[in-house]
Amino acid sequence: QVQLQESGPGLVKPSETLSLACTVSGDSITTNPSYWSWIRQPPGKGLEWIGYITNSGSTYYSPSLKSRTSISRETSKNQFTLQLSSVTPGDTAVYYCSRRGDNWGQGAQVTVSS
To answer: Which of 11, 31, 53, 95 has a Cα-to-Cα distance from 43 of 20 to 30 A?
Structure first.
């Protein structure tokens, strides 16, 4: 059974970089054809796709967030990570990681505030 778990700071100051990790168990992020996504849900709004990384390491980002987003992998830990730079209070959301949209983590609340 595939399980995903988000981790990282719950509070980030404006203009700083948000960093989250997703630890995967039950599947390898490198050996099986798949893609590993980050999605967020701001308070009172719908889900917003941020981007993904494939098993081969290729990345794809939402055009609206591309200039501030980086998704990478820590293969030794079977983790993939999200970095979102120059954050504002508008980036406050619950951040989810997912495998192909089929399996999801429980979500991590991130608040941007001074």
So the answer is: 53
The DSSP secondary structure of 8-32, one letter per residue, reads S-SEE-TTS-EEEEEEEESS-TTTS
The per-residue pLDDT for range 15-70, each reduced to its tens digit, is 999 999 999 999 999 987 889 999 999 999 999 999 999 999 999 999 999 999 99
Residue 34 burial (CB < 10 Å; 0-12/13-18/19+)? buried
HEC sequence for 30-86: CCCCCEEEEEEECCCCCCEEEEEEECCCCEEECCCCHHHEEEEEEHHHCEEEEEECC
Long-range contact pairs involving 60-64 (C-beta distance under 8 Å, separation at least 24): none
Q: What is the model's pLDDT at position 90?
A: 97
Q: Is the dihedral of CA 21, 80, 70, 37 positive or negative?
A: negative
